Every structure is written in structure tokens, then in C-alpha cells.
């Protein structure tokens, strides 16, 4: 194959560049997926072991090499078990960027019907933002999960199935303090409110701010192993926050929240 250029004696051609670009893309996706989570520390630890293996192999230290080699062999299976939720999410992220995902150039070009449906998503965003603005103003605590492509697993015994269109007034009345449905989270899937009064898994991430309570922790929890977006209105302060990929972003403006919702619901991030 024809060389493109050479660098310190190494010859590069187009396939090398493509190879490198794919590796960079995968590493960036992996970093985005793991950053802020406990899995990130495990990932760094594993990376150090792999680097140590290459160093001792290069230095021709046979005992250490064999030891690390056998650790790495078993480690591959361990990685699949430890990172099972992250691997699932990683594949989800990749799938969303595939040529036929709703935000891709090909879909917009060849499947204009999918493009049209964004009007509906804009409408949903406006209804949710209107409700959040009013609830923030009246310091009504709220927790709304936008389950993008991944179905939320929740405790059906405690929650109430709703299956209704999304409407600002309905959202407000669900979270109104006198409502029997106000406790717990409300789940939106597609263009429907799926359920209310849902108990979510609480995040055990020790890096979260210590002063946040269970509403914020459970919002983080439900986004740790999925591509859900969780929106929070604090009952105590009226502040608006959101959780995504296991990270909590506090005190956001309505405009920032709207942009985030567009990213998730329209652009498919
Ligand atoms: N596991 C959970 N899943 C869903 N909602 C929960 C969960 N745990 C608590 N909540 C909700 O959070 C409320 C308690 O909020 P808490 O004061 O502990 O949280 P907070 O993060 O400090 O929020 P705020 O700023 O609104 O007070 C509960 O009344 C309930 O509605």
C-alpha cells in the first residue's frame, strides 16, 4: 500500500490514520461514559496494570511478565463482569451514533418522517419546561426522568402507572404537595408519562456533594447505568438541577435545561 508520510522511520498510510481515528473515538466515548463514576478509578487501575505489563515485557523480566500476563487473561473476563452495565451503555452510545439513528445525516436525508417527529419532542420540552419553571417558583419538589432509549426498571409495587400525554398542568398537579402521587419520581418515555411515585435506585457515589438529599441522589442513581436524563426541582431552594451519566449539574437556568433536553431528546446525546 502507498505510504502517506513517514515519521521517525515509521511509515504511515491511510489505514493507519483510520485505525488511529477509530481508537481515539472509542477512547473518548469510554472516557465520556466513565468520567465521574467509580468505574473510572477501576478503569485507570486496569490501564496501569496493562502499561506495567508492556514495560516488564519490554525489559524482558520473565517472572513479572508471566504473572501480569495471567492476571490480564483472567482480567478480561473480570472486566466484562465488572463493567457489564458500562459495556451495555457504551454499546447504546455507539448504537445512537450508527448511520440509521434518528440524529444521523442519513436518517435526515432518507427518512424525513423521523425528522418531522421533532415537532412533537419540541412540544414535550416546552410542556416540561413550563411545569418546571412554575414548580421552581413555588418551591414544589419534583423529580422527572426522561428515559431516552433505555426502559427504566422500577419497583412497580410502589409506583402508579399513568400512560398519559405530557402536559404542564398535569405535571404540576402530580407534584403538588397535596397530591397522593407527589412522592418519588415521574417517568417519561417517548411522548407519554409512563408512571409516577416511582422509587429509584439511590446513587452510592461518594464524590457527590454531601449536602444533597435523596431526591438528588436517586436522580443520579437512575442515570448511572443508562442514558436517562433526570430533572430535579429542589423543594428546599427551588433550584433546578439535572443528572446525566451519573453526574449532577446543579443550579441550572431554564434555558440551560432546555438546551440539555434538546440534546437528549432531539439530537440523541
Ligand atoms: N429513592 C427515591 N426515588 C425517588 N424519589 C425519592 C427517593 N428517595 C427520596 N425521594 C424523593 O425525595 C424526597 C425527599 O427529598 P430529600 O429532602 O431527601 O432530597 P433533596 O435531594 O434534599 O431534595 P430537596 O432539595 O427537594 O429537599 C422524598 O419526599 C421523595 O419524594
Automatic annotation (TrEMBL):
The chain crosses the membrane at residues 12-31, 38-56, 62-83. PROSITE patterns: DAC. Residues 84-256 form the DAC domain. Keywords: ATP-binding, Cell membrane, Membrane, Nucleotide-binding, Nucleotidyltransferase, Transferase, Transmembrane, Transmembrane helix. GO terms for molecular function: diadenylate cyclase activity. Gene3D superfamilies: DNA integrity scanning protein, DisA, N-terminal domain. InterPro entries: C-di-AMP_synthase (IPR014046), CdaA (IPR034701), CdaA_N (IPR045585), DisA (IPR050338), DNA_integrity_DisA_N_sf (IPR036888), DNA_integrity_scan_DisA_N (IPR003390). SUPFAM superfamilies: YojJ-like. It catalyses: 2 ATP = 3',3'-c-di-AMP + 2 diphosphate. Its EC number is 2.7.7.85. It is an enzyme of class 2 (transferase). The keyword Transmembrane helix applies. Catalyzes the condensation of 2 ATP molecules into cyclic di-AMP (c-di-AMP), a second messenger used to regulate differing processes in different bacteria. Belongs to the adenylate cyclase family. DacA/CdaA subfamily. Probably a homodimer. This is Diadenylate cyclase. It comes from Chitinophaga filiformis.
Amino acid at each position: 500500500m502507498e505510504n502517506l508520510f513517514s515519521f521517525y522511520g515509521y511509515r504511515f498510510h491511510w489505514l493507519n490514520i483510520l485505525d488511529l481515528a477509530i481508537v481515539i473515538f472509542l477512547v473518548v466515548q469510554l472516557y465520556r461514559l466513565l468520567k465521574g463514576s467509580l468505574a473510572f478509578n477501576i478503569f485507570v487501575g486496569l490501564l496501569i496494570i496493562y502499561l506495567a505489563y508492556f514495560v516488564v515485557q519490554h525489559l524482558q523480566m520473565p517472572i513479572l511478565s508471566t504473572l501480569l500476563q495471567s492476571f490480564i487473561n483472567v482480567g478480561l473476563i473480570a472486566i466484562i463482569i465488572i463493567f457489564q452495565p458500562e459495556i451495555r451503555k457504551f454499546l447504546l452510545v455507539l448504537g445512537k451514533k450508527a448511520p440509521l439513528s434518528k440524529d444521523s445525516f442519513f436518517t435526515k436525508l432518507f427518512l424525513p418522517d423521523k425528522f418531522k417527529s421533532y415537532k412533537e419532542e419540541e412540544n414535550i420540552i416546552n410542556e416540561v419546561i413550563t411545569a418546571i419553571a412554575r414548580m421552581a417558583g413555588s418551591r414544589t419538589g419534583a423529580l422527572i426522568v426522561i428515559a431516552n432509549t433505555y426502559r427504566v426498571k422500577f419497583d412497580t409495587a410502589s409506583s402508579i402507572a399513568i400512560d398519559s400525554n405530557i402536559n404542564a398542568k398535569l405535571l404540576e398537579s402530580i407534584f403538588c404537595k397535596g397530591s397522593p402521587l407527589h412522592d418519588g419520581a415521574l417517568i417519561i418515555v417517548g411522548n407519554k408519562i409512563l408512571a409516577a411515585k416511582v422509587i429509584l435506585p439511590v446513587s452510592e457515589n461518594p464524590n457527590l456533594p454531601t449536602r444533597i438529599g435523596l431526591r438528588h441522589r436517586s436522580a443520579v442513581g437512575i442515570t448511572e447505568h443508562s442514558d436517562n436524563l433526570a430533572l430535579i426541582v429542589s423543594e428546599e431552594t427551588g433550584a433546578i438541577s439535572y443528572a446525566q451519566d451519573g453526574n449532577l449539574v446543579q443550579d441550572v437556568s431554564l434555558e440551560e435545561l432546555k438546551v440539555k433536553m434538546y440534546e437528549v431528546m432531539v439530537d440523541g446525546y
